[in-house]
Amino acid sequence: VLAYWFMALAGRARGSRREPRITPTRPRWRVALAAGLWLVTARPFARDLLGEHYHAVAQAALEEGRPLVAVPAGLRAWALGLEDRRQRFVLGQAYWQLGRTTEAAVHFAADTEANPYLASGWHNLGLCRNALGDRPGALVAFRRALACDPHDDAARALAARLEAPASVDRGRRR
User: Which residue has the higher pLDDT, 54 or 171?
Assistant: First the structure.
């Protein structure tokens, strides 16, 4: 939403009454980035919006399946002072899509510290911990996701799958 606001602002500033065109050769994140750069150079008082702008660019790039664009934009937003849970979630998703599970787990852990009552953060942290081989940590995260949202069937299935080998091992030891 914020990316469209920047695009509309850039379109009006150039004298255009229509929205900027988004085509396959000019994707939404690229239009948003150009609008934000124009905003910073033309309006110095709007520099405090730059963190929000880079977050919008990262989110748009992530939605379009471009995590290589989302990570630098997200890190830039974080460096400019946007250290909220949304930014951590976007960075975690981008790192997860790139296969960089350790970095994704760090950002999802910070996301769950910022908002411990959000099931999606615990679910994603459980996925990362499971991929890293930390079965007990993943099980704790999935249980916390279930505590936040009892109707989360995916977390319930993953927790049951992680608990199953432990119950089989206990049965063999007797």
Answer: 54
